[in-house]
Design a protein that fits this description.
CATH architecture of the largest domain: Up-down Bundle
CATH superfamily of the largest domain: MFS general substrate transporter like domains
CATH topology of the largest domain: Growth Hormone, Chain: A
Order of helices and strands: HHHHHHHHHHHHHHHH
GO molecular function: transmembrane transporter activity
Number of helices: 16
Number of strands: 0
Oligomer: single chain
Shape: globular
Keywords: Cell membrane, Membrane, Transmembrane, Transmembrane helix, Transport
Radius of gyration: 21 Å
Membrane topology: Multi-pass membrane protein
Protein name: MFS transporter
Helix content: over 70%
Family: Belongs to the major facilitator superfamily. TCR/Tet family.
Length: 466
């Protein structure tokens, strides 16, 4: 391998393939949020719409550590190709969904695919680039989010206004096929093979326990009362199964989520940071469009562009994150980024009672700028602390935490919003504003908690730092 970085370098085709593969999932993350009001108007069941995000994120979250472990066994390439295939199948089925429950089920299939795609793209980048090289390569990967932030909301808004929301999912077909073809053609890897034992019991316990806990949070106060047998049962059984999962992980030969990851201060704190970032992201992407469209009646395209400011700010700062952490270190960079993000989150929460597209867009842009220099340095710090054989698990754990943060965040924020929205089919603007204000305040609180994790993060040396 040469040290050159870019499209024309020896690793250029792999970089392009990774960018395209990441783009497939990145576009989906922004395109659906702007179309929620249109989808609900067509399929009904407004109270179920948070599940469009929660079930996708839950399926993604519980499978990330499984895929990560399998990638350390069989290699990154076959796992990412399986993920693309599942995401493609889910997208096609979503396009043909006949009601909200069906769409939710098919979104879960998409999530199963995304659970492999996102961590594998990041792990592969960690495999082929050194720490110093990733400071430059990150600029290319960050550009994916910038392009997606414009393409996603724009497509979502256009399809929604044309009443063709199903096209949101069908657009993934050529993207998935092209991404798979490029990876098959360009990415060759050498797998360090050794005997492994897959932790099936741990995987099953993790999936069922988290599903029950998310179910309890999301449906409590909506489909049933918080003190009903359904809520009590979901939390009790889910909690017991989660405890059983932890016990199994202490005894499994090769646990799906090794507990040693949480015994190291650096890995524990970076995992908690990723958890907070995931919750912040879902709180904004899920409710900014609904808030703007429902409160002041802006069209989906305008709401989408306001949200796009978040994912425009992220890659702009993310492109420079490598320069920051090579100069001032991982921890200082993350502290700087989260401080900026908190400013934006505070502005959004304080001004939510007076809806304004320009103000929301500005706040989202500032939050994105901050998060762009939080997520990357903390992940790379975690990756740099382990060797190849554990890099998949460490990366997977970090991405698992972000997905769990998003899944739990979607459930909690959904419960907060539904408490304000009520059960009426046509939710009044005042209720939308009240629910949005509560969600944005909760996002700011999560930001403060995440700051605590950054403060606790050890100041580790940066490999390759001059």
């Amino acid at each position: 391998m040469t040290s050159a970085i870019g499209f024309r370098s020896e690793r250029g085709p792999i970089l392009i393939a990774l960018m395209l593969t990441m783009g497939v999932v990145a576009v989906e993350a922004t395109v659906l949020a702007t179309a929620v009001p249109t989808i609900v108007g067509d399929l009904g069941d407004f109270a179920l719409f948070p599940w469009l995000f929660s079930v996708y994120l839950l399926a993604q979250a519980v499978t990330v550590p499984i895929y990560a472990k399998l990638s350390d066994i069989f290699g990154r390439k076959p796992i990412i190709l399986v993920g693309i295939g599942l995401f493609l199948a889910g997208s096609i089925l979503c396009g043909f969904a006949w009601n909200m429950p069906a769409l939710i089920v098919f979104r879960a299939l998409q999530g199963l695919g995304a659970g492999a795609v996102m961590p594998m793209t990041i792990t592969i980048a960690g495999d082929i680039y050194t720490i110093a090289e990733r400071a430059k390569a990150q600029g290319y990967l960050a550009a994916v989010w910038g392009i997606s932030s414009v393409v996603g909301p724009t497509l979502g808004g256009i399809f929604s206004q044309l009443e063709m929301w199903r096209g949101i999912f069908f657009i993934n077909i050529p993207l998935c096929l092209l991404a798979a073809w490029m990876l098959i053609r360009s990415f060759k890897e050498k797998v360090h093979k050794r005997d492994h034992r897959i932790d099936y019991a741990g995987a099953a316990l993790l999936t069922v326990s988290m599903s029950l806990l998310i179910l309890g949070v999301l449906q409590g106060g909506v489909s049933w009362a918080w003190d009903s047998w359904q809520s009590i049962g979901s939390f009790t059984i889910g909690g017991l199964l989660l405890a059983a999962f932890v016990l199994v992980q202490t005894r499994a030969a090769e646990p799906v989520l090794p507990l040693w990851v949480f015994s190291r201060r650096l890995l524990l704190t970076t995992t908690l940071i990723s958890l907070g970032v995931g919750a912040i992201l879902i709180g904004l992407t899920s409710y900014v469009p609904v808030y703007l469209e429902g409160s002041i009646g802006v069209p989906p395209l305008a709401a989408g562009l306001a949200l796009a400011a978040l994912t425009i700010g992220w890659p702009i700062s993310g492109a420079f994150a490598g320069r920051f952490y090579l100069r001032i270190g991982f921890k200082s960079t993350a502290l700087l980024g989260l401080a900026v993000a908190l400013v934006g989150a505070t502005v959004l929460a304080v001004t939510a009672s007076a809806p304004s597209v320009a103000l929301v867009a500005t706040a989202c842009f500032v939050i994105g700028l901050g998060l762009g220099v939080v997520a990357t340095p903390t992940l790379i710090a975690a990756q740099a602390s382990v060797e190849w054989g554990d890099r998949g698990v460490v990366t997977g754990t970090n991405q698992f935490a972000r997905a769990i943060g998003s899944a739990v965040g979607a459930a909690v924020f959904g419960a907060i919003a539904n408490a304000a929205f009520g059960s009426e089919a046509d939710v009044p603007a005042a209720a939308i504003i009240s629910g949005g204000s509560a969600v944005f305040l909760a996002v700011a609180v999560v930001g403060v908690a995440t700051l605590g994790a950054v403060v606790a993060m050890p100041a580790t040396p940066v490999p390759g730092r001059p």
